[in-house]
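Q&A log
Question type: sequence-to-structure
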Amino acid sequence: MKKIILSLSLALITISAFSQSRQSGYTKMYDRTIDINQRSLAFGLTEAQFEAIKDDAYANPNFLPGKIFQDDELLKDNVPMRYNAYADEIEIKQAATDESYGALIKSPDIFVKIATDIYVFIPFEGSIEKGGYFNVLVEGENYNLYKKTKAEFKEPKVAETSYQRDTPPSFPTTVTYFLVKDGKFLQIPNRKSRIMKMMDSKKSEMKQFVKQHDIDLDDEKDLIKTIKYFDSLL
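Response status: OK
Response body:
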C-alpha cells in the first residue's frame, strides 16, 4: 500500500500526535467529535425526516470493523468505521457499543481498510481542505483504479400547484472512477467507446478481452477486471 502514496508523489504531512505517543495516538486521531443530536438541525429537517434519509449519505451506513494505517504501520485494528460520502469523512468509534463517534483526521499518510474496502486521502494541489477520500479498487504496477463516491443533500420542496407533489429531502449519490498514474487522475468516461480509447496502446488485446469475456464496462466488477488486465499488458 505504501506505493499508492509514493506513486502519487505527495508531500507527506507529519502528525505530531503520532510522534509523541503511539499508545495515545488513537484518541488523538479524532479531527472532531460529531454531535449526534445536532445532525437533523444542521439540515433544517425534523428528526423524523433526517432519520428517513440519513443512511443514504454513507457508502455503507453500518460501522464495520477496520484497520487504521500510517504508511505501512498498523496503528489500530478492529476499529468500527464507516465512510460518510456527504461530509467526505471516515467516521470512527472507539468501541462498537459507543453511541458517540468522531471523524478521523485527514492526512495523506494515513489510510484505512474498512472490511475489504481501502480508502486513501488525496490532497488537491497540496491542499488538505480541498482534498478527499478515494476507494482503491485496483493497485497495479502501472495504473491504479480509484472510486469516488459523493452524496449531496437536496432540500425538500413543497409543491407549488395541485398538479405537483411535494419532494422529500434526499441524499442522491454519484460515483466517479479514475485511472491514476504518476499522480495524475484521469476520469473514466461513461461511454464504452471512450473508456476503450483510454486503453488504445493495447487496442487489439483489449477489444478481444472485452468481447471474449462479455465485459460490461458499466459494471464495477467488470471494470476492475478490465483495468487489471490492461495493466498486466503494460
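Response note: The first strand starts at residue 30 and ends at 33.
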